Amino acid sequence: MTDTQRFDVLSKLGVNKKRKMLTSEITQIAKSEEQVAVPLNARNVSKETLLEVVNLSVDFVTIDGRTRVLNDVSFHVDQGEFVGIVGESGSGKTTLGLAVLRLLDSPPAHVVSGKIRFEDKEVMKLTNSHLAEVRGTGMNMIFQESLISLNPVYRAESQIKESLDVVNNARKILETDGERRKKMIRVLNDLCLDQPELVLKKYPHELSGGMRQRIAIAMSIIEEPKLLILDEPVVRDCV
Ligand SMILES: Nc1ncnc2c1ncn2[C@@H]1O[C@H](COP(=O)(O)OP(=O)(O)OP(=O)(O)O)[C@@H](O)[C@H]1O
Ligand SMILES: [Mg+2]
User: Fold this and answer.
1) Were both Cys, which of 91, 123, 134, 176 would link to 87 (CB 3.0–4.6 Å)?
2) DSSP helix/strand/coil, 229
């Protein structure tokens, strides 16, 4: 997405900068009028609610005491829909994304109340193996800190390949090494990475911040999740 497109989406979402500065809670959960193109593999699926969050409250408990970070948050995301979460720094946007994927460490986080439903599944009640199925091809998150997603001791290629294997296993697709490589290079090209073949051979510390970020984004989108949570990823458009 280009900066202009991102600005367009935020404008359409009606982001109100003044309100944003007035509170330390999440200010707005807004929906774009514009629908995202429904992915090819979902063409025959009718529009339905993918994610529903109801009255979610989360506290962090530290030596300084208990702090309510998410206070009764409710929203839903339908298939093919953009939903923007707006709030000042520290208002709980990342916490909300992590809570939806059940990635919050407890302690210090405590889910005080609320329900999270993804498709027909109650996320809070899923066993670890069902949770692993839902993450990846179900819902996935591009983290604000892209380094969190990368393992420093593996080359970029094996990290993206691991993500691709998740989707291939889930969909029972068998691909040759050549086919997988082609797919990885196509995704990196889409993300405007120069010389993707060379980049695939590098370890994270050999890449620039922007390159690492693109690798992390590639790992998420190559799994073709039904719902993608973007925590401030910033990739510029190709020039
Ligand atoms: N592991 C943690 N332990 C204790 N407090 C935490 C922890 N993680 C986050 N917090 C607190 O929760 C609040 C919300 O943090 P969060 O990272 O969700 O904000 P954010 O809206 O994503 O901010 P930003 O826009 O700066 O990324 C902050 O006050 C933060 O200090
Ligand atoms: Mg954040």
Assistant:
1) 91
2) strand
With b for 16 or more beta-carbon neighbours within 10 A and e for fewer, the 22-45 pattern comes to eeeebbebbbbeeeeeeeeeeeee
SS3 for 73-136, per residue? EEEEEECCEEEEEECCCCCCHHHHHHHHCCCCCCCCEEEEEEEEEECCEEHHHCCHHHHHHHEC
Pocket test for ligand 1, best of 27, 60, 103 (most atoms within 8 A of CB): 60
Distance of CA 5 to the CA centre of its chain: 18
Model pLDDT, residue 175? 83
Do the bridges between strand 139-142 and strand 227-230 make them parallel or antiparallel, or are there none, so unpaired?
parallel
Helix/strand number for the chain, H first, E second: 8, 8
What is the per-residue pLDDT for 14? 38
Query: How many Å apart are CA 107 and CA 98, to the nearest integer?
Result: 14
- For the chain, residues with pLDDT lower than 50 are 1-23, 34-46
Cα 144 to ligand 2 centre (Å): 6
Whose CA is closest to atom 17 on ligand 1?
94
17: helix, strand or coil: helix
pLDDT digits (tens, 9 = 90+) for 160-205: 999 888 888 877 888 888 899 999 999 999 888 889 999 999 999 9
Angle, helices 177-190/209-221, rounded to nearest 10 degrees:
120
Residue whose CA is at the smallest distance from ligand 1 atom 7: 60
Which residue do the tokens 């979902």 mark?
Answer: 42
